[in-house]
Amino acid sequence: MPTLPPRLAALTPLLFVLLWSTGFIGAKFGLPYAEPLTFLATRYVLVIALMGALALLMRAPWPKDLRQVGHIGVAGLLLQATYLGGVFMAIHRGLPAGVTALVVGMQPLLTALGAGWLLGERVTPRQWAGLALGFVGVTLVVSNKVSVGSGLAELGWMLAPALAALAGITGGTLYQKRFCPSFDLRTGAVIQFVPSLTVTGFLASRSETMHIVWSGQFVFALLWLVLVLSLGAISLLNVLIRNGSAVNVASLFYLTPPTTALMAWMLFGETLSGVALAGMVVAVAGVWLARKV
User: Fold this and answer.
1) Is 34 strand, coil or helix?
2) Which of the residues 34, 80, 133, 216 could staple to 286 if both were Cys, CB 3.0 to 4.6 A apart?
3) How far is CA 185 from CA 13, 189, 211, 286, in A?
4) Residue 80 in contact with residue 196, Cβ under 8 Å?
5) How far apart are CA 131 and CA 285, in angstroms?
6) CA within 13 Å, CB half, 179
7) What is the distance between the alpha carbons of residues 101 and 287, in angstroms, rounded to a whole number?
8) Burial label, 149 (beta-carbon count in 10 A; 0-12, 13-18, 19+)
9) Cα–Cα–Cα angle for 286, 247, 228, nearest 5°?
10) Cα(106)–Cα(90) distance, rounded to whole angstroms?
11) How many CB atoms lie within 10 A of CB 15?
12) How confident is the model over 151-168, as pLDDT tens digits?
């Protein structure tokens, strides 16, 4: 795939954050009508059908090396099935969205630790400061939404999928950067989503009723997540992983909770405290430092 023009490349991180943040809004619209893994499996079926048709019509190149196909598939399992499945399951089990955001919000810090060990990337003191500042900002943004009154055993049951999601998004970013940073986005999407569908569909068939209420709101949420998230945001994430360092890419995830909070305020009337607004400023400053090389 050709390198993006400079102006478009400069806008890609901002567009990615905006699109990625809408995923939580789409989940809020759709989850009342379908169980989490069933919702995701249905989403994956549509993505594979649409992207597969597009790849065939445009005669997009497929990887010639089976080993490369395997690497792309593993990255997809981590970034799609594990991350998204973990987030949706955690919220479905009752973990507050704020706690989920905090758990997954550790991803940039873990990615920075792994980047030096697995990728040989040097994380500068300035970047470490930015990553720490970004985490503080995320904590402030979601602090008013964090309230867990469950027992220890129940809390562990709710936290387990969120921790799996954290491992998935961290491991997926590092794995893809190391083993398959560059591939065609059309055929690569099919290769990434097929194993994700296989695993997610199997788990859904064993743990859920797989019943869907086909309301207008669910169809809208499903199409939004397919077209905007799975085709748009995931493609942008793949571009970012290809063109930037793992730390730079990971730092962008700090901007997701503030952006989602703003969207929830505009769409659902959720309140924004002064502490949350201050946290947004801190998170933006942290990402600026982490990405300033």
Assistant:
1) strand
2) 133
3) 17, 6, 32, 30
4) yes
5) 10
6) 18
7) 16
8) exposed
9) 85
10) 16
11) 13
12) 667 767 888 998 999 899
- pLDDT tens per residue, range 180-232: 988 898 999 999 999 999 999 999 999 999 999 999 999 999 999 999 988 88
Phi/psi of residue 34, nearest 5 degrees: -155, 145
Closest by CA position to 238, among listed 25, 91, 51: 51
pTM of full prediction above 0.90:
no
Helices (H), 105-245: 107-114, 125-142, 152-179, 185-207, 216-224, 234-243
| pLDDT of 135 | 85
In our burial notation (b when 16+ CB lie closer than 10 A, e otherwise), range 92-119 reads beebbbbbbbbbbbbbbbbbbebbeebb
Indicate the helix (H) or strand (E) that contains 257: helix 256-268
Q: Which of 27, 258, 36, 266 is nearest to 145 (CA)?
A: 258
What is the reported pLDDT for 2? 47
CA–CA dist 32, 26 (Å, integer): 11
Q: What's the longest Cα–Cα distance across the chain?
A: 55
Please, what's the b/e burial string for 25-49 (b: 16 or more CB within 10 A of its CB; e: otherwise)?
Answer: bbbbbbbebbbbbbbbbbbbebbbe
**Distance of alpha carbon 115 from alpha carbon 76, whole angstroms:** 19
Structure token digits, residue 110? 């873990």
Question: Does 148 have pLDDT greater than 60?
Answer: no
| Contact indicator for 221, 30 with CB cutoff of 8 Å | yes
